[in-house]
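Memo to structure team: turn this sequence into structure tokens by end of day. - J.P.
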Amino acid sequence: MSVRRLAEDSVQPAAFAFNAENQAWAEQTIKKFPEGRQASAVIPLLMRAQEQEGWVTKASIEHIAAMLGMPLIRVLEVATFYTQFQLKPVGTRAHIQVCGTTPCMLRGAEDLMKVCKHKIHHDPQTLNEDGTLSWEEVECQGACVNAPMVMIFKDAYEDLTPERLEEIIDAFAAGKGDTVKPGPQIERDFSAPAGGLTSLTTSNPKAEG
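Reply from structure team:
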């Protein structure tokens, strides 16, 4: 596993605070845990900070440590350990996570990465020219049956071809990402067999009787 470090000071904001809605949510989340166990809220609070800012900043880590009464190093350990936390700025319109684990790789993930290199930036975790798009390779996202796939923020886009991924990237680049339906990008019902049912295709007379 690669070493994960916070972004350079030059891109770090000076301060962080939850907005009013997220502050109320954070306070309610902390109350779910017994007295003395508030540190258990660290992951959901870091995730909410990331959703608000787009990435986990040094200031947000310091703020959450203070909220939970945790040593700063403990929150830093969590943020740098879990790869779900983005430690540097990502695309404001789309951050594309390409699954590179075996099933997706066998089904064409390398070609999807080539699309990202061409359409966004040659290097992963690097913003495009206008800061709206970025990409990275990640480990299994749990949609192996629908390989290859990518995650864009919270949504999965599955059964991809390079051509379809190009169309999706173009839509997000144009600010029209909400017009792209998540899930399988072929005529398929979730994770059902792509070619139709191969079992349980006949009724059971005994069950019907």
